[in-house]
Amino acid sequence: MATVTNWIDHLSAEEVVGAIYPGAGSSETLLVILGVVFWIGWHVLTARSESEKLSRLARKRHGANDHKSNITDW
């Protein structure tokens, strides 16, 4: 195993120009794209489910004091 004594000379060498670890650029880009797609998808699914729940509750037309009657499906 080789040891590096001078990092400036090592990183400026022709065979090391660019990233100093394998897979730089390709795997990170893919992971960022997948993360953004997952994040947006999660928000869309959450918004849909919350809208459905709120519209279902709005159809029941609960009054302001119905919680005092201990309605189970509040």
Describe this structure as you would to a colleague.
- By secondary structure, this protein is mostly helical.
- It has one domain.
- Helices cover 54% and strands 0% of the residues.
- The protein has two helices and no strands.
- The termini are far apart.
Largest sheet: none
According to DSSP, the number of beta strands is 0
Mean pLDDT: 77
Helix segment tally: 2
Number of domains: 1
End-to-end Cα distance, whole Å, is 68 Å
Tell me the overall shape: rod-shaped
Radius of gyration from the CA trace? Answer: 28 Å
| Oligomerization status of the protein chains | single chain
Alpha-beta content class: mainly alpha
Protein name: Heme exporter protein D
Transmembrane segments: 29-47
Keywords: Membrane, Transmembrane, Transmembrane helix
Topology:
Blueprint: H1 7-11, H2 26-60
Keywords for this entry:
about 70 residues, mainly alpha, 2 helices
Brief account:
The protein is built from two helices and no strands.
